[in-house]
Amino acid sequence: MIEVEGTAALTPEPADTGALRQADAARLKAEHDREFAAFAEASYHTVERILRAECWDREVVEDALNEAYLHGRVQWHKLRSYTKPIGWVITTARNKIRKDRQRRQREAAVAPEDLPPTPHPDIADVWEAQEALRTWLHQLPARHAEVFQMAREGFSNPEIARILGLTENSVRSYKVAARRRLRELAEEAGYPSPDGNRRQGGSRGSR
Question: DSSP string of 176-196?
Fold first, then answer.
């Protein structure tokens, strides 16, 4: 029997084992990259519509989306196990928008003339109805608009409550209030009411 003494007893890891581990890591990364790319493609426009229901500035929304999805890719090894990782993206992007809004408010307090002008809606195009709805959403309280848009995107009341940090009763209340106010704005703009009649004196288009 031959005994191995000293450092010779510490057998180094075979080179092929290290190579296998690297290959496994590369395969896992490639798999996660494909998963995340598919998730981002499927969810991006949904998240964008939800954010724009509350924030009119397209550039701010796009910046928030890009940052949220960049963070999402880094955290995908955790997010991929979530039932709805889109909720994480919405929350992260909303936080970015909130911080950006706070920064702009601080800048406005110092130099309001440096802020960009508020964009004006233009609904006279082929997407008139969609643009009109977006305009009306911005006349609602921000939280009402968010809840309404998320409901339109197929989120359930419990999911909306969890993502926005609300109770389900509040979600239901905000949805009812949002629908009521949107119906009033539509009738004021001259769109037909549910019974098919136009509001007297109304005319299509913004006032």
Answer: HHHHHHHHHHHHHTTPPPTTS
